[in-house]
Amino acid sequence: MEKPKNKKTPPFASGKVVDNYDLLFTYWRVAREQGREDLVDKAMLKDEDYTRLREIVANKTRINLWDLLEELTDIFIDRIDEDIAYMAASRLGYNISRGDARRLVARLMAAWLIEAGEYWNVVKIT
Fold first, then answer.
1. Phi and psi based region of residue 19 (left: phi greater than 0; alpha: psi -120 to 50; beta: remaining)
2. Could you tell me if residue 94 is inside a domain?
3. Does a structural domain hold residue 13?
4. Residue 64: which domain range?
5. Mean pLDDT computed over 80-103
6. Burial class (CB in 10 A: 0-12, 13-18, 19+), 6
7. What confidence tier does 6 reach under pLDDT thresholds 50, 70, 90?
């Protein structure tokens, strides 16, 4: 699977769902600057995330990408720190609320899981 040209993506991401992961990378950077390596760890994909993705898609022949993104975003949101997300978003010039920044970072994690899930043959993006 090819990564988008000249775009930085997390491991196993293809850029098929999201072509810009800058906010996620900035979230990790800000968390590290604040001495919060624990938040960096929470914002990384784990084996249980792949297990959850498998469970969600297991008995479905098709699933709407938007619905899957929403379901996974709702799962990831508790792992994202609102203040760090807001600082990261502000650094990139976003003019959004803390809650919206948190949700956007969680959505990037959801997209990353879907893309990585395709790499590992858990889902097929069409």
1. alpha
2. yes
3. no
4. 22-119
5. 98
6. exposed
7. low
Tokens of 21: 């992961």
Q: Is residue 9 a part of any domain in this protein?
A: no
Q: Whole-angstrom Cα distance, residue 89 to residue 6?
A: 21
SS3 for the chain is CCCCCCCCCCCCCCCCCCCCCHHHHHHHHHHHHCCCHHHHHHCCCCHHHHHHHHHHHCCCCCCCHHHHHHHHHHHHHHHCCHHHHHHHHHHCCCCCCHHHHHHHHHHHHHHHHHHHHHHCCCCCCC
Residues 125, 118 contacting (CB under 8 angstroms): yes
Q: Is the pTM of this model over 0.70?
A: yes
The number of distinct structural domains making up the chain is: 1
Residue 42 lies in a domain: yes
State how far the Cα of 80 lies from the Cα of 9, in Å rounded to an integer. Answer: 19
